[in-house]
Amino acid sequence: MKKIFLGISLFLLFQSAHVSAQQKDERWPEQKIKEWYNKQPWYCGFNYIPAYAINYTAMWDKTTFDPAAIDKELDLAEKSGLNSLRSVLQFAVYEDDPAYFLKTLDTFLAICDKHKIKFMPALFDDCVFGLEHDPKVGKQPEPVKGWYAWAWSPSPGHSMVIDSTTHPRLEKYVKAVMGRFKNDPRIFIWDLYNEPTNGGLGTTTLPLLKKVIRWAHEVHPSQPVTIDIWNKNKELNEIAVAGSDIISFHNYGNKDDLIRNIAELKVYNRPLINTEWMNRPNKSIIQDNLAVFYDEKIGCLLWGLVNGKTQTDLPWGHRPGDPVPKVWQHDLFHGDFSPYDQKEIDLLSNDISKSKTKAYLQQHLQ
């Protein structure tokens, strides 16, 4: 009996080691991701939420999804030269009606493709800027004037992040969405989780994050996957790097801070893409930082396009009654599509145009 027990134990140990090795092997080898990156243009784009949407639930929900408005805004982006965007998906909208959500996502991708813009979907997001920590489908509240992103809705919401009994529902979502679009050339990267542990969740997000990475690898998408490095949490960053084919990061600092950050990330010996930047009061500005991304062929997606209900012209933490800042924190255009600063648009358009030359692309081969 002891021999049988020992045999079973050794078999289970072997199986566990074999599964761990398989999961490790799912990450693209360095050479593969470098070869992929060499075939890509210099991605210079933006984080996108339509001006009509107070949160990502409103962007995707069947009560408010507005393809005509999105088409007009992405036409503006195309005319400015921008070639890529990133948006957070919403699990709650998917679970409410999976067929509707997948069809709507396909509609959105068609609009992106019409305007020659590649899409980076983010499957989950822990961020909270207001009072609600769980999304609710249906018509969303109106803005509270002077409150930065007050009705922001995380995905899937903090309650589900914490409650592991709900995670099988999240697995279905990940595999349904990624499975449907895993070979779609309109998607260039999957961002598996925006700023995990943010919004006060801390380490309680880590078990779900590990599962999301595993689920994504089980789909075997043709596109690379990534999880953004956004803070100095060593444990979180180790998980993010180990689960990422390409290293993505957030940086809202000035030019010197950005250069230091890039130098730190180059130790991973993988291509880099910045998925959040531009904070004018903090000196993360197009006039200085864009050249850093351009010179290194590091993709960069600033925040955001058309100023709207999220009020991201205001600084983080801004509340009603606070002094109105003279300088916008984020966004390139006013609601009437006039530029906040035409010089910024000219710089973006000029560098994106120059990046299309054969000489530029050859110079930046990995």
List keywords for this structure.
six-stranded parallel sheet, alpha/beta, 14 helices, globular, disordered N terminus, 366 residues, single chain, 8 strands
What's the topology here?
Blueprint: H1 2-25, H2 30-38, E1 44-47, H3 56-60, H4 67-79, E2 84-88, H5 91-96, H6 98-114, E3 118-122, H7 158-162, H8 167-181, E4 190-191, H9 206-219, E5 225-226, H10 234-242, E6 247-250, H11 255-265, E7 272-276, H12 286-296, E8 299-303, H13 342-354, H14 358-363
Parallel strand pairs: 1-2, 1-8, 2-3, 4-5, 6-7, 7-8
Helix pairs in contact: 4-6, 8-9, 12-13
How would you explain this protein's 3D organization?
- It is a single chain.
- With 366 residues, this protein is an alpha/beta fold.
- Helix content is 43%, strand content 9%.
- The chain has 14 helices and 8 strands.
- A 6-stranded parallel beta sheet has the order 3-2-1-8-7-6, covered by helices on one side. A two-stranded parallel sheet has the order 4-5.
- The longest helix is centred in the N-terminal third of the chain and has 24 residues.
- The protein starts with a helix and ends with a helix.
Q: How are the strands of the largest sheet arranged?
A: 3-2-1-8-7-6
> Beta-sheet strand percentage?
5-15%
- The tally of beta strands, per DSSP, is 8
What are the low-pLDDT stretches, counting only 5+ consecutive residues below 50? 1-24
Distinct helical segment count: 14
Order of helices and strands: HHEHHEHHEHHEHEHEHEHEHH
Most strands sheet = 6 strands, parallel
Distance between the termini: 57 Å
The pLDDT mean sits at 93
Helix share bin: 40-55%
**What is the SS-derived class?**
alpha/beta
What is the CA-based Rg, rounded? 21 Å
Shape: globular
